[in-house]
Amino acid sequence: MVKRGKIGQARHDNKVRSELEKLVGEGFRVWADLPGRTRPPKVGGVIPDIYARKGNKLIIEEIETPSTKKSDENQQQKLKKGTKEKGGIFKIKMAK
After folding, report:
1. From the CB of residue 45, how many other CB atoms can be counted at a distance below 10 Å?
2. Which of 25, 66, 69, 82 has the lowest CB atom count within 10 Å?
């Protein structure tokens, strides 16, 4: 896993906040891996950036930056598999 620089981390966190607000607006209960928020539960042994639930619908999102897109592929595969096992939808979103 590659460590993000300050600018990359800020872009990542801004995208997580943006996705959080969008999903809350759609009526989801959302957990986000951000300072000051309740961390999402592990999925496939990994804590995702976003864990959103509305009724029986589950959405797991992982936010990547250009510096982490390739280096975090193992983590992405674990999340994808874990989400599938829970009957959810897994998405990878890019922070630019």
Report:
1. 10
2. 25
